[in-house]
Design goal:
There is one protein chain. This protein is of the alpha+beta class. It is 32% helix and 28% strand. Strands 3, 7, 8, 9, 10, 11, 12, 13 and 16 form a nine-stranded mixed β-sheet that branches. It has a five-stranded mixed β-sheet with strand order 20-19-21-22-23, with helices on both faces. The structure holds adenosine-5'-triphosphate and magnesium ion (MG).
């Protein structure tokens, strides 16, 4: 993409309304625009990041054997009356009435609707387990929307639902989702720690929140420092190996990791040696729940077991805050100059900076580089604007692309360009060919 043609309204000043760094940087980098309180339009740069995150989430759900479907944003109130949650959910639910005076709502979550879909489609235990997910916008009329996309009213969530015949079988589904969450966040360059959690309005008795450490986070975090050193990406996960999944879950949950609701100061002291105690704050990027027959019972979602007797199915639900993750990644990865995107979620891999747009040699060289990078499938944002070099550097640092390829008239005379790594600030003088080779070759420098 040529920056001269790109809708990228970057700001030099810090917007007064933004209290935390991710919100400030998202506004300054022209990623989003607030259209109502807690509701955002995703501008081209921000939308590319959102889609990258969504795609990683999708790939890891698919890998775990979860099937993607798509449910609507608007739901009939009847289903929620059936489950008993219509009144319980309170003011966070946006209630709508259509022209025929039928009661609808903008979905804050989808347990009821997926249970309805499940019960209409399955009859026998032979059809279990079922694991289904969708990635869809949710609406919760949060009392205090704040921190930009981190606590919005409209937000993008991945939500999965599992249906099993027994608690033991449901635990396997839970462990699959647990493992896939570890992989999902690790692939985004995040360290997300699973913490024992309260189940809240979803209800149930087994739940973990996945928390990314950040001082600005809304959740209190208490854990053994050893929990911060676990790495899930070395070694694959075999989703058919149920004992292995259970062992993985044990390994990642044996570090007294609790959120503030469950924190018990006395047990923390007893369970964790003083020098290993970690107390901090974090951002909830996902939560997994097992809640048994909480919905299947009132909604009569039963299947016939081997003897033909009806059994209420055991359910779980599993959410990831896809749009919240954009902010969480920035909280975890930035410096005073701007965002530092981990490569897997970067909107473009390379920022090509033409230091003297209008100069025939610079233009020719940059056009050539730009075409070759594009041809090699390297996502490139080409700053071809006639701006001062200083402004181009500042914008490129602000939007945080992993690699900057800097082309100026002086270097070019000697056939040289500069390659800057955004995260480390390292700069290399290279021949033009060597620079292109590095960027198109291994992708990672
Ligand atoms: P919170 O405690 O932050 O209000 P929650 O526990 O109510 O979140 P869940 O029902 O567990 O949220 O939803 C699954 C995920 O959706 C959360 O882990 C979070 O990442 C994301 N999420 C929830 N509420 C919001 C929101 N208002 N804005 C953006 N993302 C959200
Ligand atoms: Mg939650």
């Amino acid at each position: 993409m040529r920056l001269s043609r790109f809708l990228l309204p970057t700001l030099k000043e810090t917007p007064a309304e933004a209290q935390i760094v991710s919100h400030r940087l998202m506004l300054r980098a022209g990623m989003v625009r607030q259209t109502s309180a807690g509701i955002y339009a995703w501008l081209p740069l921000g939308y590319r990041v959102l889609r990258k995150i969504e795609q990683i989430v999708r790939e890891e759900q698919d890998r775990a054997g979860c099937q993607e479907l798509l449910m609507p944003t608007i739901q009939p109130a009847d289903l929620w009356i059936e489950s008993g949650r219509y009144d319980d959910y309170g003011k966070e639910m946006l209630r709508i009435e259509d022209r025929h005076e039928r009661k609808l709502l903008f979905g804050p979550t989808n347990e009821e609707m997926i249970t309805d879909i499940f019960r209409s489609a399955t009859k026998s235990y032979r059809e279990l387990p079922q694991l289904l997910y969708h990635i869809q916008w949710k609406f919760r009329d949060e009392i205090r929307p704040r921190f930009g996309v981190m606590r919005g009213r409209e937000f993008l969530m991945k939500d999965s639902y599992s249906f099993d015949l027994s608690y033991e079988a449901a635990r396997v589904s839970y462990a699959k989702m647990f493992a896939s969450y570890l992989r999902t966040f690790a692939r985004m360059g995040l360290q997300a720690i699973p913490m024992e959690a309260d189940t809240g309005p979803i209800g149930g008795d087994l739940s973990h929140e996945f928390i990314v450490l950040a001082d600005t986070g809304e959740s209190g975090v208490f854990c053994d420092r050893q929990a911060l050193e676990l790495d899930v990406l070395d070694g694959g996960i075999d989703y058919d190996d149920h004992a292995g999944l259970e062992a993985l879950m044990t390994r990642f949950t044996s570090h007294y990791a609790r959120t503030d609701e469950k924190h018990d100061a006395e047990r923390f002291a007893a369970d964790v040696p003083a020098d290993r105690r970690y107390e901090g704050r974090g951002i909830e990027v996902g939560q997994v729940f097992y809640f048994g027959t909480k919905y299947s019972e009132p909604m009569k979602a039963a299947v016939a077991d081997a003897d033909g007797h009806p059994v209420d199915v055991h359910m779980g639900s599993y959410g990831i805050g896809v749009s919240r993750l954009v902010g969480a990644i920035i909280e975890a990865s930035h410096d005073e100059d701007g965002i530092i995107w981990p490569e897997p979620v970067a909107p473009y891999q390379v920022g090509l900076i033409n230091l003297k747009s209008g100069d025939a040699d610079c233009d020719r060289a940059c056009d050539d580089i730009y075409q070759r990078l594009n041809a090699a499938g390297v996502e490139t944002l080409y700053d071809d604007r006639s701006e001062r070099a200083g402004a181009k550097f500042a914008d490129m640092d602000l939007i945080g692309l992993p690699h900057q390829l800097i082309v100026g008239p002086r270097g070019l005379k000697a056939g040289m360009v500069e390659l800057k790594h955004r995260a480390t600030g390292e700069r290399d003088e290279l021949s033009l060919e060597a620079a292109i080779g590095r960027l198109t070759g291994a992708h990672v420098l």
